[in-house]
Amino acid sequence: MKQQKNILGVDVGISGALAFYDDEELIIFDIIVFERNKTSRPDCHRIAKIIRNLKPDHAFIEQVNAFKMGATGAYNFGWSSGAPEAILATLDIPFSYVTPPPSMEESYAVP
C-alpha cells in the first residue's frame, strides 16, 4: 500500500505562493505580506499558521539568486526568500531546494 505524502511547494518572494498537494487536492495561497517602512515583507506569522494547518511531510523551496539589483533590492529579496526556510525550520518540516526551469522567454529565445 502506497503511503500518502503531503507536499508543499514554495515559490519565494513577495509575489510568490505556497502550493500544497496531498494526492487528492491542490491548494494554492499567495504569499501574505505586510508593509514595513514602505517595503513589503512576508507575514511570517500568518504564513506559519497556514503551513502548520496544512501539515506537509516535506517542502520544496525554489532556489533563487539575487542579481541585477541594487543593495536595497538585494537585501529585501534576501529577506523575503529566507523567510520560508526559517518558517519551515521552526515548524520542524524537512525541506529541499529545487532549481526552477528556465523562463518561457529564455526557453524560446531566438539567437
SS content category: alpha/beta
Order of helices and strands: EEEEEHEHEH
Q: How many distinct helices?
A: 3
Give the radius of gyration.
15 Å
Work out the helicity level: 25-40%
Q: Give unreliable regions as ranges.
A: none
Strand order of the largest sheet: 3-2-1-6-7
Give the total of beta strands: 7
Q: What is the percentage of strand-forming residues? A: 25-35%
Superfamily at the CATH H level? Answer: Ribonuclease H-like superfamily/Ribonuclease H
Which fold name is given in CATH as the topology?
Answer: Nucleotidyltransferase, domain 5
Number of domains as seen in the coordinates: 1
The CATH architecture comes to 2-Layer Sandwich
Largest sheet: 5 strands, mixed
Question: Averaging pLDDT over every residue, what do you get?
Answer: 83
CATH class: Alpha Beta
Question: Rough shape?
Answer: globular
The end-to-end span amounts to 50 Å
Topology record:
Layout: E1 7-11, E2 17-21, E3 26-30, E4 33-36, E5 39-42, H1 44-54, E6 58-62, H2 71-90, E7 95-98, H3 104-107
Parallel strand pairs: 1-6, 6-7
Antiparallel strand pairs: 1-2, 2-3, 4-5
Helix pairs in contact: 1-2
